[in-house]
Amino acid sequence: MSPNALIPSHRKPRRPSASSRALRAGVTGGFLTLAVTGATVPANAAEKPVSETQEMPTITTALATSAARSADTAEQVAFNYERQALQDSAFSHAAKAAEKHKAEAVKKAKAAAKKKAEEARKAEKAAEARASRSSERSTLSAPSSSTATGSTATLVSFLKAQLGKAYVLGSTGPSSYDCSGLTQAAFSQIGIDLPRVSQDQSTQGTQVGLDNLQVGDILYWGSAGSAYHVGVYVGGGNFIGAQNSSTGIVERPLDYDMPTGAVRVL
Fold first, then answer.
1. pLDDT, tens digit, 9 for 90 and up, residues 192-214
2. Range of the domain at 180
3. What's the whole-model pTM score?
4. 166 and 257 share a domain?
5. 195: how many CB neighbours lie within 10 A of its CB?
6. What pLDDT shows up at residue 265?
């Protein structure tokens, strides 16, 4: 045995190295940290604060792509909302415009219907007035039914007696006539006074259809109230009239110059 074997050592126990402590702490904390043996840190080196040595999280490609997609999605949603708002506004304006046009059309239609109804009432009153005047004339001047046939015969006889005479504008006989002058003279033979001109003669008595003519009906060409020519129906599909300066007073079939309308004063 060495003489010094029992002499207590005066050296201090070795303190664990920093690397040993780090190894034990790593194992205890659930992770292992490997250190290079013999690595030393200068004694005068101060430890850096954790905030200076801690690494910032790394932004990976997947994270950047996800963020970009989120931004695109938000932008698309905002665009969709804006487009929908514009569409809703356009639809609203269109609906209001359509409603306005509809109201204007209804207003115009009502005004047109009102005007048409007023015109119809005026025409009806005019027809009633003409019928009333015709009735009065019939009462005052028309022959009775017992003598009507004789009056018609007298009328036709007078007209036939004028055949071949000259047509002279403005003439009322006895050697020449114009169209309305002849009809006026003919009806005066049976006691009926007619207006002088064709326009007025075309509104006398009662309007009758050309398919319901009777002897003595006054035929007119043009429209009632503005006729430019008149003649007298004498039966058998014929009429007598002072036609023009070339033909004078003639008897012709209706289809020679088809009249527009007819009035009955007998």
1. 999 999 999 999 999 999 999 99
2. 143-264
3. 0.46
4. yes
5. 14
6. 95
